[in-house]
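Known limitations

Structure tokens in this collection are predictions and should be treated as such. Users comparing against experimental data should check residue numbering before alignment. To illustrate the layout, the record for FAD-binding protein is reproduced below. The input appears on top and the generated tokens appear beneath it.
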Amino acid sequence: MTMSRNERGLSRRAFLGLGATAAMAAGAAGLAGCSPQASSDAASAGASDAGAASGSTAAGGPSFLTEPSPIAESDIKETVEADIVIVGAGLSGISAARAAVESGAKNIVVVEKATTWQYRSNQVGCIGGKIQEDLGIHIDKNAAVGQIMKECGYRPNQRILNLWADNSGEAFDWFLAASEGQYVVEAESDTYDGKSMSVRKMHWPHPAEANIADDFYPIFDDCQICLPDNGPYIQNMVDICEKAGVQFLYSTFARQLVRPDNAGRVEGVIVEDENGDYKKITASKAVLLATGDYASNAEMMSYYVPWSDRFMSIFPNVDAKGEKTNTGDGQQMGMWIGAKMEDGPHAPMTHHLGGPLGMDAFLLVDINGERFMNEDVGGQPFQNQLSRLPKKTAWQIFDSKWKDQIKYMDTGHGNVNWYVESGADVPNGSYGKNAYISDEDNEDGNTPGFLSYFEGEKALGVTANSIAELAKLMEVDEAALTATIERYNELAAAGNDEDFGKRADRLFPVEEGPFYAYPLTDTVILVNMGGLQTDVDFNVMDTEDEVIEGLYAVGNAQGGRFLVDYPLPAPGISHGMALTHGMLVGRILAQL
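Generated tokens:
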């Protein structure tokens, strides 16, 4: 099997669309309500093909809550016997398959509706492991998990988060072990050829001036970057599985779980191939749902997170029919046989990555030229404020001294901390905001140079030698902007932000031209966190909070992990949790 990044992966910068031009484009699409409409077909087709009335609803609710008529035995062309069936060949499903087979499980079938296995990004968050140990990084597990709980309104199941915190270091070492001898561990600032396998600590080391111990929104050093992306590392795990006899059924759509009369254990899953033929795959031990999230299912988004259904989804992975794969198939199939969808509010992953200087804590104003928040927050809290602004638009403003100021900023996801003279010194292979910036683009083009945000036909930023001229270019009220900046400069001079409480060492005056302003509008949505309720052993629960025997969930199909907002204290935690929980549930399944 060959691996192609373009087939299954997409750079996080391209994914979130926050380069010199894409932020406004994504914002315009979000404001226009351009949520994908056709992506719910994957699961809904199972209902319509099985004879359920198209568009029917459950007690006046949305159609996806309507249990389809069972697919008739006479329509099933083939029965395949398995011990374990895993639905979904993404990071969590592949990790589960590998862990299960390495722990002695036999007769494992993995069902995937895309033409091959799936992945995204290059970031994996963990606590512990050899790389962090070698760098002398120690993360307080309880501090990290506690911050996640706070940012999620204390709604997650902390025991499920603890599984990640307690086992993710081991899991990441296990992840890399599949690629032993093929990768090197390097510094984030090292040059990169764009092809080889290189593992780096994200945003490490920190500038001493950043003083992260006093962060308003703490961010932990849990994230590793796997270059060129996660693809070749996962390919090696797939190879382990295939050599051990795991059967992968690609271009195969899971349509219904087999649970007679919605009572007793789950006995298997009915799937449909590209030709429209049904197969029943029996599971003598377990069915594991590793089917991902539902952000590309417009109906589910409108039902569960109506405040976020306007965001444009640019999820890159598509199934064998060309439709996006994250359509909530596992959640729907589970609910049809009595599983409980976790209580909300579900958590959209809509963290902003800011402008040319990322989410650094420079002055922010709205379209009226007025300051509205403490700017020293991460991309998700910022997006929450942005969503409530007039026209959902803000401007990030700073002056000519920015090159000396970024080293004082936070060092988390979306922050920029190092200025270098040449674009050649900005590391290649970046996903998201690079911690480094130059005036010019870097070599692989993944990190636009500072000047590209302000010069050229596609530049959205404006620059001027006076505040009056800047206000004119921004099309905001000159008097209001002038008053805002004068007040901000007073606070900076006093070293005390009486208005919004930003820490003094990140409170820089805007006083020496040229002055810069960059517009920030709605970001896009990556995934939406909301899954089936499980216990700590990944057993799916029913609406009476009882275990449904034989049914498990992992990854974004599992609930209890993130609620209200996708939290940013631990960058890469979504992939880290998929990897870690996949490893753990695979070992559990092997013991059945």
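For this record: The longest strand covers residues 76-87. The longest helix spans residues 158-177. Please report discrepancies through the issue tracker.
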